[in-house]
Structures are given as structure tokens and as C-alpha cells.
# Entry
Amino acid sequence: MKKLGPVNALYPMPCTLVGAIVEGRPNFITVAHVGILNSGKPQYLSIGLNKAHYTNAGIKANGAFSICLPPESLIVETDYCGIVSGKTKDKASLFDVFYGTLETAPMIRQCPVCMECSLDRILNFESHDIFIGQLVETYAEDSVLTEGAIDISKVKPLLFDMASRKYFSLGQSLGNCWSIGKGLKR
Ligand SMILES: Cc1cc2nc3c(=O)[nH]c(=O)nc-3n(C[C@H](O)[C@H](O)[C@H](O)COP(=O)(O)O)c2cc1C
# Structure
């Protein structure tokens, strides 16, 4: 094994479009550094945003943000939202924007799954704000549900890899979790 230094190798990650109201207008930023902090209720999710971004002030001001899952078909729009800043461009005009329970977490109708989060706390790292949100509501298109649950093969999420700086698609299911390993139990 070759030592690479402290290279973060936790990829791929799902690409998300995070929505917030900034200076009174909806804005969307592409975010791959998302985290699941627990499993249960309440459910907490994190996003790591560089402090230079336009979005941060809006999340702080309104205490809310959304996390939407763009499908493969939104690859161009998703990349664009990760290249240009809401400081200079109206990125929300690319999408049909809707609001849910929180009313200050803009979401995207073209994303088959959107989650709205109420800001719980901020971890203040040197270069990044880590926003921890409590998941308040999840919205999913009927077309991506199988027996009422989100079917990831229907969502067709965009996956992001830092090493190659490329987008990937989801592969095939390989087996059932908490099940396929049972064969090794004695
Ligand atoms: C695929 C991709 C993933 C990204 N992930 C993150 C991320 O996790 N955190 C972050 O701070 N910026 C990330 N960015 C960069 C921001 O999306 C980008 O700087 C954006 O223009 C900032 O928008 P804003 O100024 O409107 O907030 C990513 C960009 C791309 C293309």
C-alpha cells in the first residue's frame, strides 16, 4: 500500500443543490460535502460551506436551508450552480422554485427529492461553516417511489468524485444490507 498523505477518499458523494433565501431572493449552491449525523428522529444533516460563498449569510439570516437531489438530467444546471455565485447571477431562475413548511427554504421542482432543514447549529471551522440542520420535511415525486419509499434507482442521483473531478451515475444493487453478510455468522 502506498501512503498518499491525508487525502480524503470518501467519494463518491451525492451532489446536492442547497437552497436558501439570500438578500430576499432564492439562491442555489451545489454541495457535495453533505453529512448524515445520526439515524432516527429528529434527523440531523450537515452541509459544509466555504465561508466565501454567498449562500452562508442567507442560511444564518433565515435559519433554514433545503437539500435537493438533482437527477442525472440536471448535470449541466448542477455544475453551473457550482461554478457561478448568487452574488452575480440569479441561479434560481433556472428552476421552478417551491416552498414547504418552513417557507424560507427554497426547493426545486425538477429535483425528484427535496428536503427542508431548520438550522440547528453552526460549527465554525477556519475556512468553512458547517451548517447542521434538523430535517423538517421531505418531498418526493411519485415517479421515484416504490411502495411509498424513495427508490434510489429511480432518482438517478448525480455522484461526485473529487479525485477525478467527474460526475458518475449510480450502479446496480449488489445485495441486501443487514442480510447478505448473515452467511458468515456462526
Ligand atoms: C460538484 C461540486 C460540488 C461542490 N461542493 C461544494 C461543497 O460541498 N462545499 C462548498 O463550500 N462548495 C462546494 N462547491 C462550490 C460551490 O458550489 C460554488 O463555489 C458556488 O458557486 C457558490 O455559490 P454561492 O456563492 O451562490 O453560494 C461545489 C461545486 C461543485 C461544482
